[in-house]
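Progress report, Aim 2. The chain analyzed during this reporting quarter is listed below.
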Amino acid sequence: MAIHYRCRHCGTNVGSIEAQNLDSQKLGFHQLDQSERTEMIQYDESGDMQVSTICEDCQEALDRNPQFHENHTFIQ
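Predicted structure tokens for the chain:
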């Protein structure tokens, strides 16, 4: 199983982790509530986990433009 992190705003591949035994506690997923997990984590047909995150460039844009936080995504 692999975990693939992708920016939810621009779609940039942020990174991937390839491992057989991944511990959700070490990855911090245990800190998410059920609605956050549902929104951020999906599984593809091969069983890999797809995690929505925010890349550095989009985080900088959010920092410079706080009103962007009102939108689910701000890149069209």
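The beta strands are 2-7, 13-18, 41-43, 49-53. The two ends are 31 Å apart (CA to CA). These observations will guide the mutagenesis work planned for the next reporting period.
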